[in-house]
Amino acid sequence: GHSRLPTKYHNKQLQSWVKDQRKHYEKHTISKERIKSLNEIAFEWVPGVDVWEDGYGLLKAFVSEFGHARIPMLKDDSPYFKLVDWSIFLREQCVKLRAGDKTFLTEKRISILYKIGFEWDTKPTPTKAV
């Protein structure tokens, strides 16, 4: 499990509460007891970190196995199936970053992805499904 809320979540009160906890944490206006309690449930203090780590880890495994980072259309039972949506998501986040919008994607992460051969200007390759 995880403590991440989707961007468009039906419970606005919970979304607001989560946002407040992060704000208080950032401003150091939250008690140590509250921090400890939230850490015990793996509260995500910085949104997007787990998304990055999970996706990047999976991409590195794909590159290690196949020798490239060109994500083909994958069967839904493939261990790499989530990479199709993640690569589309990365491209969307890159557009947001370039437009000056808030995103978990950073120039450093873009550089890391370039280094392993991630292709920014392409859609998933319609090759034989893996």
Automatic annotation (TrEMBL):
InterPro entries: Helicase_assoc. Signal peptide: none annotated. It comes from the Eukaryota. Residues 1-43, 51-118 form the Helicase-associated domain. Pfam families: HA. This is Helicase-associated domain-containing protein. It comes from Proboscia inermis. The lineage of its organism: Eukaryota, Sar, Stramenopiles, Ochrophyta, Bacillariophyta.
